[in-house]
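re: ur question from earlier - yeah i can do the single chain one, its not a big deal. heres the input i used so u can compare w yours
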Amino acid sequence: MFDSIHIATTGVSVHRKWLDAVSDNIANINNVSPTNGDAFQERFVRASAVEGGGVTVTGIENGDPAGRLVYDPNHPLADEQGNVKVPDMDLADQMGYLIMAQRGYQANVAAAERASNSYQAALNLGKNV
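and the output i got, formated as tokens:
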């Protein structure tokens, strides 16, 4: 039973990191950079299974720093051609990732609570005899 609590809490930890990364992506989706610099890089959480059960974050990877060029000649960071660099991310994709991470987080919290409640019920079995 303790294994199920441990596995669920590792899932909570991984999904929390994923939520943090997606939130960071969404917060920076409209960042503008000069064309001679790097655009904000999308964050990707990498996770892998742990021997014996559970998961762990194995790293945070960054997306493409090239971004995409957008014509905005009135922006103070625009180059001679009127272009600026923005992150190459799609808000709809990020919102989908956010929903998946949130649901995974909620599912793991619920699994940990159920396992904990089962453990508490097992401890209380002998008390009412």
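The two ends are 23 Å apart (CA to CA). not sure if urs matches, ping me
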